[in-house]
Amino acid sequence: MSASVLPAAQLLFTAALVAWMFTGFTRLPGRWLRWKMFCRANFTIITLTGTKDGRTEPVNIYEYLSPGSFILGPPQLQAILTHSGRYDRIDGHGRLLNADGEQPIEVRDSRVVL
Question: pTM of the full predicted structure?
Fold first, then answer.
């Protein structure tokens, strides 16, 4: 076995590993964040307004979450809306992002509607 075979094998292995890692982050048609860590995550980008005694004001849903939380799916959003007693009614609209792509999401009368 010559001295150049080992470095060539290392280079080939490294190139194959980099190519494999690169394909893990590429997009499939109609999908985003293909990496397995994100395949079951739901990200909600939503604008909410709360109504209390006829006054309407913006609602920051993240004040109900622990610091650093950003992954919020429809069940978690509904749980927060159900247990937030500050407003008579919460309405809003936005986008739900997950492995299947984007879809619209609405909140009507404190209920999540997909």
Answer: 0.63
